[in-house]
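I am still getting used to backbone structure tokens and would like to learn alongside you. Label the sequence line and the structure token line clearly, so we can match residues to local backbone shapes. Go ahead whenever you are ready, and we will take it from there:
>
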Amino acid sequence: MASTSATMGHLPSGIGICTTIPDILYLPELIFGGLVWILVACTYVVPANPQGWVMFVSVFCFTMTFIWMCIFACGVHQNSRGWATADFVYHGVAAFFYLSASVALAKVTIDKKDDTLFNYRLDISAVVFSYIATLLYFIHTIFSAWRWKSF
């Protein structure tokens, strides 16, 4: 298990992102965000607006998290307070976006419960994975805030 004391006061680079909290959360965020993206894309979109927001959030957060992970893995950041602040802000915004998308997706799913069982199961799975992604981004935000404050 990764130690939080290893993350205080510096930003990891290279393989260090796989061993420190909160950076170890990049991969689960990508996995669950990708699952939301795939499951929503597989369902029949009746109310296009809420589903469109969910697709935007999942694609945006998946892409930005992948880019953010690559920046940290390649060591492009210079271990500065600015990068720690940007990490905290990005994950806070992503958590807020995912929470709003999760609520919209849950509302659409509740309204569509008379749909076919297969589509309803896909929608339920998307809602569950969306809330898991929200939780992961929220936890990442908290640990990023602690790291930012210790800089």
User: Anything to note?
Assistant: Residues 117-150 form the longest helix (34 residues).
